[in-house]
Write a structure and sequence with these properties.
- The protein is an all-alpha fold.
- It contains 10 helices and no strands.
- α1 packs across α2 and α4 packs parallel to α7.
- The radius of gyration is 19 Å and the shape is elongated.
- The mean pLDDT is 90.
Length: 201
């Protein structure tokens, strides 16, 4: 049911995501949907949570595993700016949710939760890179950089998903790597080039 909701929203927007339409897409009865979800709004929030959790998991998996902190950050940036995270369907679904996000308290709470999880991932990676470089940064500095870094990747993600065909292969990742490196004043691109990759995703 949640997958069907996401598919309807990605294709036709939130307004088209009626219980009838979702039931038809999921090949279930409307009664079954109402059995699990008290309202359509509750189903929409659950679908948004699943959508964001999937993207967080896809990008977050790149920050684990072997390698230096810089390599983990590089893999994270790359995972954020390529499929399956950066696709027209993912951005389209996210844009569809935004039609109601700013006017629904439950959606705002879920978005706030997802944003803080994403920013914490970014902050942790930045802090690890600085620790590896022997650079000391205050928590407030790390917070500022994680907000800016998240915004940078979000902007590239939106354009990459919406009009990905206008970019050269690998261009978004290279721009993201150079821009993020400039933001934190660490040469991520030079490090990756010297290493000839970081076990890229």
């Amino acid at each position: 049911m949640i997958d069907a909701t996401l598919k309807v929203i990605a294709t036709d927007g939130v307004a088209a995501a009626t219980v009838r339409t979702i039931a038809r897409e999921a090949n279930v009865t409307q009664g079954l949907i109402r059995y699990y979800f008290q309202s359509k709004d509750e189903l929409i929030v659950a679908a948004y949570e699943a959508h964001m959790s999937d993207m967080l998991a896809s990008a977050g998996s790149a920050m684990t595993g072997a390698g230096t902190a810089k390599c983990r950050l590089i893999r994270y940036i790359e995972a954020t700016l390529k499929a399956p995270v950066t696709t027209r369907q993912k951005v389209g679904t996210w844009a569809g949710f935004f039609q109601i996000l700013l006017h629904d308290d439950d959606m705002i709470r879920q978005h706030t939760k997802s944003y803080h999880e994403l920013r914490l991932q970014t902050k942790t990676l930045i802090a690890d890179v600085y620790a590896e470089e022997g650079i000391s940064k205050s928590d407030s500095e790390l917070r500022r950089l994680s907000i800016a870094g998240s915004a940078l990747l979000d902007g590239l993600w939106i354009e990459g998903g919406a009009i990905g065909e206008t970019f050269h292969p690998g261009e978004l990742f290279r721009v993201g790597l150079e821009s993020f490196g400039a933001l934190i004043n660490v040469d991520l691109k030079g490090f990756r080039d010297a290493k000839q990759g970081c076990g890229d995703t």
